[in-house]
Amino acid sequence: QVCHGLRTPQLPIWLCSLSGRHGVLFGTDSQLLSDWKTERVFHLYFYNGQREQTRTAHLTIDTHSHPWEEDPCEDPSSPGKRRPPLEMAIRTKWAGATVSWNGTEPFF
Questions:
Q1: Which helix (H) or strand (E) holds 90?
Q2: For the chain, what are the domain ranges?
Q3: What pTM did the predictor assign?
Q4: pLDDT tens track of the chain, all 108 residues?
Q5: Taking Cα atoms as reference points, which of 23, 19, 41, 21 lies closest to residue 31?
Q6: CA separation (Å) from 84 to 14, 79, 80?
Q7: Which of 22, 55, 65, 86 is the most buried (most CB within 10 A)?
Q8: 81 with 71: CB under 8 angstroms?
């Protein structure tokens, strides 16, 4: 039997499979699970245990970003416009959100 803590986590946590690699995306604010107002700007952390990841990535998510501030002349399929799969996975929950990697080089 699965314990209550595993069925209903106290902190937000997602297991991810991105580009054939597995990782854990998690937050440390329990309000993110119950208060929609905390979904404005919040922090998530990502760890995949791969050799190239030397520390947990600290991400800042802004769900009220302004997409019209992006360069309208840039082709969405150009290399400068492509986003890491982790950002795209985050956007499946928070469409249009911007993701700041806070100094960590985006990977995946």
A1: helix 85-93
A2: 13-67+81-100
A3: 0.78
A4: 777 767 778 899 999 998 888 999 999 999 988 888 899 999 999 998 887 778 889 999 999 876 555 555 555 455 556 788 999 999 999 988 999 999 888 876
A5: 41
A6: 17, 11, 11
A7: 86
A8: no
